[in-house]
């Protein structure tokens, strides 16, 4: 064991899990204000409607392209794939200018990741954000050093809910048994398809998870206490 403290499973003989992979938006970081700011800025430039951040929070999780496409559908704007490509590129460019404007880590995230790391956990990120933006945000929030593997949507052949996305992060971490921690149905479906145990966070937006509230993590550090699948 690499950690200073021995973690034992609930029942003797059950495997002890010390690998955790995290979703980013809505799980580690409340990025809704920054996503909303960037996408609304670009939409306004093209005479399109503004969308309330609270509604955007319900739509994030399937990547930038899908968010832009879904916002256009909501506004009943017929758009060719090339229009969606163009607006997505403009949105991501605007976002990259201010990767951390008003976005904030959820309470205790940094200290809890530090605790898991100190206990010898291998930690990774599996997000549908683009890789470069993900790395900028991890650096800006000071979380970068906790993760041994990070994969954004454009660093794999197919993004979440394709199980290959999560499994690529797990392979980067050396394989074995892991937990995936997320806040949306996309994360839940990805974990299920990959055969990885899932933990939902207590601060997920209403209606996005089927995991009962009582079974959700109220703190990330709670993973250390329930590390058996
Ligand atoms: O959809 C996105 O842009 C990112 O979402 P995720 O970090 O929850 O995967």
UniProtKB/TrEMBL annotation:
Pfam families for this protein: HAD_2
Annotated catalysed reactions: 2-phosphoglycolate + H2O = glycolate + phosphate
| EC category | hydrolase
Any single GO molecular-function term of the entry would be:
phosphoglycolate phosphatase activity
Matching InterPro entries: HAD-like_hydrolase_sf, HAD-like_sf, HAD-SF_hydro_IA, HAD_2, HAD_sf, PGP-like_dom2
Known EC number: 3.1.3.18
What is its pathway?
Organic acid metabolism; glycolate biosynthesis; glycolate from 2-phosphoglycolate: step 1/1
Example GO biological process: DNA repair
Highest rank taxon of the organism: Bacteria
Cellular compartments per GO CC: cytosol
Report the family membership.
Answer: Belongs to the HAD-like hydrolase superfamily. CbbY/CbbZ/Gph/YieH family.
Name of the protein in question: phosphoglycolate phosphatase
């Amino acid at each position: 064991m690499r950690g200073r403290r021995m973690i034992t499973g609930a029942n003797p003989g059950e495997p002890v899990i010390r690998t955790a992979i995290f979703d980013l938006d809505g799980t580690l970081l409340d990025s809704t204000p920054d996503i909303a700011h960037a996408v609304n800025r670009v939409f306004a430039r093209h005479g399109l409607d503004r969308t309330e951040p609270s509604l955007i929070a319900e739509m994030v999780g399937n990547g930038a392209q899908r968010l832009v496409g879904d916002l256009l559908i909501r506004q009943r704007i017929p758009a060719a794939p090339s229009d969606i490509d163009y607006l997505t590129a403009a949105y991501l460019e605007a976002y990259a200018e201010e990767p951390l404007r008003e976005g904030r880590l959820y309470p205790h995230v940094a200290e809890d990741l530090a605790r898991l790391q100190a206990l010898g956990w291998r930690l990774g990120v599996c997000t549908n954000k683009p890789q470069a933006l993900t790395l900028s945000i991890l650096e800006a929030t000071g979380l970068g050093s906790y993760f041994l593997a990070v994969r954004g949507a454009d660093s794999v052949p197919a993004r979440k809910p394709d199980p290959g996305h999560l499994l690529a992060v797990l392979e980067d971490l050396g394989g074995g048994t892991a937990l995936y921690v997320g806040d949306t149905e996309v994360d839940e479906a990805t974990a299920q398809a990959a055969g990885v145990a899932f933990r939902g966070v207590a601060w997920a937006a209403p209606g996005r998870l089927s995991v009962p509230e009582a079974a959700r993590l109220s703190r990330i550090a709670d993973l250390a206490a329930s590390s058996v699948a």
